[in-house]
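Continued from yesterday's entry.
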Amino acid sequence: MKSERSEQRPTDYVMGEMTAEEREAFEAELKNNPDLVAEVEEIKEMAALLTAELGGNKGALSEEAKGKIEAAAQEKGDVELPKPTHGGLAPAAGNDNGKSGKVVSLPRDGKMRTPFYRRPGLWLAAAALAAAVPALWMTAQRGGLSEQKPVVLVSQAPHAAEPGRYDVPAATAMATMGSKPIGAGLAAPMKQHAGDGLRSETAYPGNKFDSFSENPFQNPTKEPLSTFSIDVDTASYALVRSFLTRGEMPPAGSVRIEEMVNYFSYAYTEPTGDVPFAVHLDAAATPWATTHKLVRVALKGKNVQLSRMDGVNLVFLVDTSGSMSDPNKLPLLKQGFRMMVDSLNPTDRVAIVAYAGSAGLVLPSTPVSQKSTILGALDRLESGGSTNGGAGINLAYSVASEHFFKGGVNRVILATDGDFNVGATSNEALVDLIQEKAKTGVFLSVLGFGMGNYNDSLLEKIADKGNGQYSYIDSEVEAKRALVDGLGGLVTIAKDVKIQIEWNPQLVSGYRLIGYENRTMAAEDFNNDKKDAGELGAGHTVTALYEITQNPTAGPAAGPNGGLKYQPSSEPAPATGELCTVKLRYKDPAGTDSKLIEKVLVDKPNQEMSADFKFAAAVASFGMLLRKSPHAGSATYQSVLDLAEPGAGNDPRRRELVDLVKKMAQARRE
């Protein structure tokens, strides 16, 4: 039986929703597969028919028409085509077959195959294509249906009709995923489309997301060390949620699994000594590959109240360029900052710098006791002009430095869509500028807004180099989460936090770090205090997951050990039961020399996953499914639900994820 992914490919191809690599591979297969060629040709004819019949009004199917298409798709014999309704199929003039819709029969080599209208699988595809209008109409308008690379068609041998031959995934029969708002409070329904049940992200071609390949499995006899910087960014999860809520599949570059996992808090115990964070290690069977193990490396930062700090000095750096005029940009930004100001102490200070064609000081550093003055300055912000982000950054850091609180929180909070187009506009120039400014002790947090010209690529980089956190704000709920609930995270308790794991090749034959692709480091960078790494805020949790393989033939490598624990230069070390040794380096917030922590994870056969561990695994497997990861194994949206439910409880954020996955499972009919 063909897989869902295999069966949806012809529709993806016709709709122009394959990557260049996928299209090339598919066309190579077409050359040697007459049946596949026939299927593509039929879907093309269907697309042309639906474009002609539905393209004019560019509207969605009515609920009545959707229901009739779905009902027709389930019939195993003759089907009555949907009668004309608003937005539905129009009857064909002169059609004498007694049906209410247009009938297309497709001869092959002079022989008649099962008529078009008798094949339920193709009606499922029809539902997908029809539900995709106006996406289909837009594709046709820009030539998407006719601008495919030419295919060399081979002769098509006739074959007997097979009732199930042309079935496509049941998900394609869905005209909608439902209209219940997800997460951010956005009411747009998740509209069905071919493939994963959602449209491709084509409505916003100006967005910029970095592409990356997932970490591969490594052999510990050749690569015994895995080194990476921690990451407390959460933007990816909010971006993914926002795309899915609008009924669009998120671009693969927006799905950063570590940010999705770290969006959620976990029940890790807090540190008790002088070390600012606790380290937790555990392992259990991998849910999507049960012969593998999943290793969890987790940090829990100590909680520090802002009131205990020696002052809070904030500069709101606000993008007021013309691209920020949308309701989900500057107006939402202002509302978020109002909530934040309401949560600060009277002795804290706030300044506002705005930038468009040039940068200006909207509000000098002002104590929060003068709240009405601060809020009035926020209210007066208006959008217009081009975007000179570099000038604004320089001015914001200058203002923050003038009112620097030694032993306090000193931070610039940049709020923008990242559409820099004047001044230091290249990613490299802005990243270098931010990295230099971070040396002053003023850290940077980044808040992303809106969609359409959104520069995720740049915003993630400057938050990283600015010793801060990157969040995406798509609603007042998310603004409150980032700016009010996460206020304590502005207090940096450790900086340049790096993790290095040495794997024991006697017990581990392969390992793969899940996520953190743009945070990996060279092994020698671990002991180099000049190398920048991630910051940990008060109360933050950090979770990293490794998938490992084990087999009885694994053993230590020969040759010099280079200071390695598990790979001596001569005799194989005796088995210790240790899967790995985990080392961490960090600096105090104002320090320059790192401190070292070391812990060991001992293998425990048949170790059960806690509900909290299951939830983290659920989020990771959800991310892999969204990325169409080759490492997703047996994962399905239903298996994600099964993992997530035990740990979701009544937590609203976790329940939101469960609801989101349920809609995806419904779209795939899992």
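--- second protein ---
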Amino acid sequence: MLKIYRNLKPYIFHIIGIVVLVFLQVLADLYLPTIMSDIINDGIIKENVGYIMHEGLYMLLISGIGAVCAVLASLLSSQVSVGFGRIMRNQVFEHVEGFSMHEFARFGSSTLITRTTNDVVQIQTATIMILNFMLRSPIMCIGAVMLAYSKDKKLTVLLLETLPVVAVIIFIVGKFVMPIFRQVQKKIDKLNLVLRESLTGIRVIRAFNREKHEKKRFDTVNGDLTDTYIKVNRIMAFLIPALMMILNILIVAILWFGSVRIDAGDMDLGALIAFLQYAMQILFSLIAMAVMFIMIPRAQAAADRIEEVLEVKPEIKDPVYSIPSGKERGYVAFDHVTFRYHGAEEPAVKDISFTAGPGETTAIIGGTGSGKTTLVNLIPRFYDVESGRVLVDGIDVHNIPQKKLRAKIGFVPQKSVLFTGTIADNLRYGKADATKDDVIYAAKIAQADEFVSSMKDGYNTMLSEGGLNLSGGQKQRLSIARALVRRPEIYVFDDSFSALDFKTDAKLRAALRKETQDATVILVAQRVGSIMDADRIIVLDGGTIAGIGTHKELLGRCEVYREIVSSQLSQEEMA
């Protein structure tokens, strides 16, 4: 948890200010019972109205100073905690952005969201309480004990005898609560996971009439979280009543023994009232610290989860020294590349070698699970190879900074991803300074201009989350247009034409062929019709290359390719 609080460095002067203000507030609060004692002894008992008025106004002034210090301290505490939360969220988000796909899979999106939001809020809440109460309570407690001792030594012994009882109660409650708070954060993760799956999969749920099943699934995790919270609250509900009972017993004891001492002439009434005030300040300080000791375990659990994310060292790192690019532009080469996913027994792709250059279209085809997507994911370095090399422009991708490498590539993923915002904003995602003409030109090549122009707001049409107000084919065409706006050296289309009808597919490929004459095109496809005219077709089977060549060459010598073609085309079309 201490590692997390290193991020408070920008607010060090705020914290110093808070300490000073808290100290002044405590001095004011500790001085008030002394004034009250003097008013009782020298004013009320002696019936000195002028003295009462003078000391009363002085008391109001001290109270006002204490109140102003308290307000300013709370204001600064709020600024520190909110700013600290902002720093933490930025730090977690930026760190997660550097994760490889393996690290994303290790945590899962639901827990990363929880850690960036809920866990940070828990630390924020604990921070403001630490600044408001944990600084104030120990100073108040120590000061009140010293002043109470100065008023009456024997009653102070009675007061100190209650402190171990309070400490034991706080320790027992904290011991039970700490592990439960760790469970709470994990169950919030699970709740977020179920909720996220239910919202993103709502069409499937309705199509299969599984609403009751999902409701039951959500009720189960929601009920589990609720039961855990109830368990925590039951334990915490014991704390405050127990401490208040001790406080009330202590007050009765002080009044009892204090009255005996007053009767014996060992103590005056003003001292007893002041002592009683100090006793209440001590006990309320202990109650505040008790609440803090309950909040800190939850913040500790949240901090541990955030540290777990921040301590992950991304597998994919930029080189210490990058190799400058040569004269080659747009060349991609795989040199005996082998890659396996973490925990897998067999490689996803094995001993892959091929080259692709500008002006060429290299198509990759194969059965489901043959490694097509895995292969193209190695080019922008979403994963690192196990052995062999992936070369871009003659340089191993390990020796190219990730930002520079990906700037060379226009990547269209298998699943079209659009963001909330206008269509124009989405198309400019890879090139923020693209002009309106650039956007429209790319949309025309991707066969998207027609349906975009037919919309009421055209390119200013707002897209819903994930582009849910568009069809699958429309999303694919906008994803392709987004890559075209960038005008990269290398285009990677990962099964990006699967949702298009044959007519649109043919028109789009014809337009692409003209646009990408000087670029390298790597195309993953399931449909043979989309790749028949490719300069090079790579056939994958079980992660290995079963054949490389043109459509005609592969028909003659590659059995795997012939099976794929015969499953999609008639004998006449094959001929």
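The chain has three domains: 4-310, 324-408+490-575, 417-487. The CA atoms of residues 446 and 481 lie 5 Å apart. Will compare against the first tomorrow.
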